[in-house]
Design brief:
The complex is a heterodimer of chains A (about 120) and B (about 450). Chain A contains two helices and six strands, in the order βαββββαβ. With about 120 residues, chain A is an alpha+beta fold. Chain A has one domain: Alpha-Beta Plaits (2-Layer Sandwich). Chain A starts with a strand and ends in a 17-residue tail after the last strand. With about 450 residues, chain B is mainly alpha-helical. Chain B has one domain: Ammonium transporter fold (Orthogonal Bundle), CATH 1.10.3430.10. Chain B has a two-stranded antiparallel ribbon. The chains are: A alpha+beta (about 120), B mainly alpha (about 450). The interface between A and B is medium-sized, with 16 and 15 residues.
């Protein structure tokens, strides 16, 4: 079992979710997070450019059995990648996010006491 | 020329410019009581626009909250400017083009109003600004029907044209002294504060726009939860308070008919609220906050045309009828699966039509007597219902048709509907480069 954690652009949540659902990956946890990577994102308030230190992102957490790791990662990558031609600012090209995969020790479904792959 | 003489000359010249407005007095004295109430009403009706922004803003998803609130706020800018330039002249000038709208060149930039006092003792500036607020809120109401899926630029063009081509003519027909609906039947079509002009026209236009533009991406399968119902409740509260200006202010005085309208407004809103609560409690098992505030709005919308002619019992009945009608309309919408996102038609269109038609059965006897005298003997409820039906029918057909034409023209030339990507990304980010709920993220 693996835990797939993906940090994506706020504006890509709909795309990623729809793509995941299409591939029958429906059990996910989504949270709003802020973070700092290599992206510089400018916002304009009353004509003054502001570069926030922490940029809002969306975090997805998906626990999967080994067989689903590749398809999940592939789906997220395809849906979360932005098209450079559609961005207003070329500098925004950085910032599509990251995926990391960690080993998942144990998984328990509280309602039924199931453990392991069954509980995913 | 010495400096001193120059200054003297300059002052003399300035005096000549100012003098006419200072010394040329209108004969009518200002009624300070009526003027004070009309000033208050003007401010109250303006407050409904941020109220509407909050009401609508809370109902859309987090990514669209600012874009949706902007639809209301931008109307305050655009419609005010258009009103001063041409709106007042088109609404309250004498008939031109066979009565399609009015026109008086003196009203352009409100030039003629500078020292004009209406016969009721209220400066015409106040009346004009009061009416301007109605021209602001009407197009803003339509935005609820196509929330979360239109381009900002196209929306701006749409409400500008809609204001000029739909609102101004309708306002002229119903409220100008030479408007043809104002003079229909014995004592005119009854539209005290804007059931036809504001709510029916906005509701129908919203329905046409929603049908033409199609549903939001994923509707009705995808869950589209309201971003902030607390804000919606506050907005609903502001609308109720503001509605006293809307209805009681429409008496254009501070007296008996003001009091009658104010009472009817309060009673109808309350009746609408509890009716919706009971229907929902019976139908869904729980009385929701959004349901209660929708009932308030349904009651307020229905009493808008009626506030001047119904007594409290009639207002109560209208509130009850409106909640039943609007609740039913929304159930039907859910069956038919068209996407009137925030129920601009379901509440304003249906509520407005119910109010405009059913008010006929609750008109106070003194009004009917006066109408009978004006008609030269007798005037029945059914005759008045006919007049109301004609007014409603004309508003529905005219607003619907012109909106459809505007939709087609704007969509073909500049595109009205957001692109799929923009819709998924959210209007706030796509058109305004901001986000509304930044507070939820540490920055």
């Amino acid at each position: 079992m693996k835990l797939i954690t993906a940090i994506i652009r706020e504006t890509k949540l709909d795309q990623v979710r729809e793509a995941l659902i299409q591939n029958e990956i429906e059990r996910i946890t989504v949270s709003r997070v802020s973070g700092h990577g290599r992206q510089r994102s400018e916002e304009i308030y009353r004509g003054r450019k502001v570069v926030p230190n922490l940029i809002p992102k969306i975090k997805l957490e998906i626990a999967v059995n080994e067989a689903f790791v590749d398809i999940t990662v592939q789906t997220i990558m395809e849906a979360a990648k932005s098209n450079p031609e559609e961005l207003d600012d070329p500098a925004e090209v950085v910032g599509d996010g990251k995926i990391w995969i960690t080993h998942l020790e144990e998984c328990i479904r509280i309602r039924t006491d199931e453990r392991g792959s069954e509980a995913i | 020329m010495s400096r001193k003489t120059f200054r003297l000359l300059w002052m003399a010249g300035a005096l000549c410019l100012i003098a006419p407005s200072v010394f040329a007095q209108n004969d009518t004295p200002v009624d300070s009581g009526a003027t004070a109430w009309m000033l208050t009403s003007t401010a109250l009706v303006l407050m409904m626009v941020p109220g509407l922004a909050m009401f609508y803003g809370g109902l859309v998803r987090t990514k669209n909250v600012l874009g949706t609130m902007m639809h209301s706020f931008v109307a305050m800018g655009i419609m005010t400017v258009l009103w001063v330039v041409a709106g007042y002249a088109m609404c309250f000038g004498p008939n031109v083009l066979g009565g399609w709208f009015g026109w008086d060149p003196g009203f352009v930039f409100l030039k003629k109003l500078d020292n004009s006092i209406l016969d009721v003792g209220v400066p015409e500036y106040v009346f004009s600004m009061f009416q301007a607020k109605f021209a602001i809120i009407t197009p803003a109401l339509i935005a609820g029907a196509f929330a979360e899926r239109v381009r900002f630029k196209s929306y701006v063009v749409f409400i500008s044209l809609w204001g000029l081509l739909v609102y101004n003519p309708l306002c002229h027909w119903v409220w100008a002294s030479d408007g043809f609906l104002f003079n229909l039947g014995a004592s005119g079509a009854i539209d005290f504060a804007g059931g036809t002009v504001v709510h029916i026209s906005a509701g129908i236009s919203g329905l046409v726009a929603a049908l033409y533009l199609g549903a939001r991406r994923g509707y009705p399968k995808t869950n589209m939860p309201p971003s902030n119902l607390v804000m919606t409740m506050i907005g609903g509260g502001l609308l109720w308070v503001g509605w006293f200006g809307f209805n009681a202010g429409s008496s254009i005085q501070s007296g008996l008919s003001t009091a009658q309208a104010l009472t009817a407004t309060q009673v109808a809103a309350a009746a609408g609220a509890i009716t919706w609560m009971i229907i929902e409690g019976w139908h869904q098992g729980k009385a929701t906050a959004l349901g209660l505030v929708s009932g308030i709005l349904a009651g307020l919308v229905a009493v808008t045309p009626a506030a001047g002619v119904v007594q409290p019992a009639g207002a109560l009945a209208l509130g009850v009828l409106a909640s039943f009608g609007c609740y039913g309309a929304i159930m039907i919408k859910n069956k038919l699966k068209y996407d009137d996102s925030l129920d601009a038609f379901g509440v304003h269109g249906v509520g407005g039509i119910i109010g405009a038609l059913f008010l006929t059965f609750f008109i106070r006897p003194s009004w009917m007597q006066a109408a009978a005298e004006a008609a030269g003997g007798s005037w029945s409820v059914w005759q008045q219902l006919g007049v109301q039906g004609v007014a409603v029918g004309i508003a529905v057909v005219y607003a619907g048709l012109v909106t459809l034409i505007l939709m087609v023209v704007i969509n073909k030339t500049m595109g009205f509907r957001s692109s799929v990507d923009q819709e998924m990304q959210g209007l706030d980010s796509a058109y305004h480069g901001e986000h509304g709920y930044g507070i939820l993220n540490p920055s």
